[in-house]
Specification:
Helix 5 (123-137) crosses helix 6 (150-164). The chain has 10 helices and 8 strands. It has helices at residues 4-12, 14-19, 27-37, 94-104, 123-137, 150-164, 182-185, 201-211, 247-259, 284-299, and strands spanning 47-54, 57-64, 75-80, 108-111, 142-148, 172-176, 236-241, 264-269. The relative contact order is 0.15. It has a single domain (4-299), classed as Alpha/Beta hydrolase fold, catalytic domain (Rossmann fold, 3-Layer(aba) Sandwich). With 300 residues, it is an alpha/beta fold. Helix content is 37%, strand content 17%. Strands 1-2-4-3-5-6-7-8 form an 8-stranded mixed sheet, with helices on both faces.
Length: 300
């Protein structure tokens, strides 16, 4: 049963749907509004954030105070922010990233990858791979890659890229409400969609056209990870709410991974909205969801 805070917050996030993610607004306006709303994000004081650049790309280390940033080269998390491939940044997702780093007690790297429509596919994926290669060059052995929404898509696509280009496969992958290709290819054939308080089909379509203007690209695993061979996927963790347009993207991807005999964990939250994990500073359900993410990280 949802807490009172969760029920109230679900109504509040509808303002984001019509103000920030209004499909009639320009991309630049959506970016500005999202950045403005991100002022409410809170980072735990026990996590240190350090900004730097990877070959000119803005990046940040999120390091829990319990561990030194480069105290060991074993486990590290590369987290890719969401935002429909067109919006978002390290800044807008700093609370989520820092909370995961803190609860999992793991150094976490985040990047500001290039956004569409100025930089359509494959710019974002290339930037993710560049960050992954940077971590390998730094000596990290067990690299976990993850992301939310569009960032989850990029994390999953990176698995395909690594395999196809003979790079070491990440230790594990974490996908929070990812776009896997089900929705924008109508793979599920679903007629009635969940009543999503945050995202609209029009907004998702607009961002998709900005990122992949050529509809033929939708059939490629780098855009629609579910359409690729999943036999080489590492242990995977999917987390999604039932009040999301992208619900089937997670459910069918997990089903296909299970059919491929891969290790996969599905964590479904009844009644929760898209990216609810970003509200861990106020929502008990979000805090518990991040705890489950941390438990998965600590087990791989």
């Amino acid at each position: 049963m949802l807490t009172f805070k969760a029920r109230m917050l679900r109504y509040i996030v509808q303002l984001y749907k019509y103000y920030i993610f209004n499909p009639s607004a320009t991309i630049s306006s959506q970016r500005w509004r999202m950045k403005l709303a991100a002022r409410m994000q809170r980072m735990p004081k026990s996590v240190h954030k350090r900004n730097f650049f990877i070959n000119g790309m803005p990046a940040s280390w999120f390091t829990p105070n319990k561990i030194a940033e480069h105290g060991h080269k074993q486990h590290v998390l590369l987290f890719i922010h969401g935002g429909g491939f067109c919006l978002g940044s390290i800044y807008t997702h700093r609370g989520l990233i820092a909370n995961i780093a803190k609860m999992a007690n793991i150094p976490t790297l985040a990047i500001n990858y290039r956004l569409a429509p100025e930089h359509p596919h494959p710019a974002a994926l290339n930037d993710v791979i560049m960050a992954y290669q940077y971590l390998r060059e730094q000596g990290y052995v067990n690299i976990i890659i993850g992301g939310d929404s569009a960032g989850g898509n990029l994390a999953l696509a990176a698995i395909h890229y690594c395999y196809n280009n003979k790079l070491p496969i990440p230790k594990a992958v974490i996908a929070l409400s990812p776009a896997t290709g089900v929705l924008h290819t109508n793979l599920s054939g679903q007629q009635k969609m969940p009543n999503d308080p945050l995202l609209s089909l029009k907004a998702i379509k607009k961002w998709r056209l900005c990122y992949a203007p050529d509809s033929n690209l939708l059939k490629h695993p780098y855009i629609s990870p579910i359409l690729g061979d999943l036999s080489y996927f590492p242990p995977s963790f999917f987390q999604v709410g039932t009040r999301e347009l992208l619900l089937q993207d997670s459910l069918l991807m997990v089903e296909k991974l299970q059919m491929a005999n891969r290790s996969v964990t599905l964590d479904v939250w009844e009644g929760m909205f898209h990216d609810f994990q970003m509200t861990a500073h106020i929502l008990p359900e979000a805090k518990m969801a991040i705890k489950r993410i941390a438990e998965f990280i600590q087990q791989v």
